[in-house]
Amino acid sequence: MAKQSIGLGSVADDGTGDTLRIAGDKVNDNFDELYTTLGDGSTLTSVAVTAINNATANELVTIGATTTELDAEANLTFDGSTLAVTGILTVDDINLNGKVVTITGSTDDTFSITAGTNGATTIATVDTAGADGSLTFNIDGFIQLNAGDASGSFFIKNSGTTYGTIFNSGNDFYIKSFISDGDLKIQGVDNNSAITALTFDMSAAGAATFNAGITSGAGLVIADAGTIGSASDTDSMAIASTGIVTFSQIPALPVNSIEISTTTRGAFLVMDRSDGFGSDAGDNIIDETDSDNIIHESATDLVGSVFNIIDSAGMVVRTINSV
Fold this sequence. Notes:
three-stranded antiparallel sheet; 20 strands; rod-shaped
């Protein structure tokens, strides 16, 4: 039945409109058709939608291009609890009333962002295929890491175990190894070969081992009473706070490598009393003054004695006579 409209006439009370009975009959006929179409003739019931532009279950409907039709969206579905979007979702701001955002990549590999207590946030990747899920930052500008705790700390972990941290204290910058006795190493690549340039031995109070020597642009300072030696004889040279050097072993010196000053009362070569050159208290001193070789003790001069300086082969390279 076509919709029936009530005739109202041209102007009020001109006698050309429908009578009240005819108007009421049209109203009843219109409602009878609605109740029959949308119900059982006397009661309205739910309407089952069989198709809207080839729609399937759970698809959301949008206004068509002509604004006079409805289109079902195959890439936009809602089943009452989950809104699923296939394709690109463009939004200005997102306010999530939940704790986890999960993005699924190939197969069921996921990337998740989880908000915890006090805003603590965890970013995680899960790769069920067994490959390593990686996180890559590819930024046009620079990357800033700004920690708001008192020391600006960054903790570095492996499978939940902290093995290092970077932080500051006052104006000082710290790099700290967390593993007990775990060494701290600086590595690089030399001619395509990996090398460890510097190792700090944390089981030895941080003793530093350089792989290929040290080059200093301003000299090398040893602590007062410090020692210099080899791996097998770590204290072969001891340097006192006064600058006096003591050898723990007999030094082997190249021929004519020692020059004793000829300046009047100049430099001395001092030999400990225990070396056998003297038996009295005091040190044995070789003093070359004005080309004269003089050997004496602080207590007793060794007059008339002859001393030979020999090389590593036992050959005499110089004879010093006391006077």
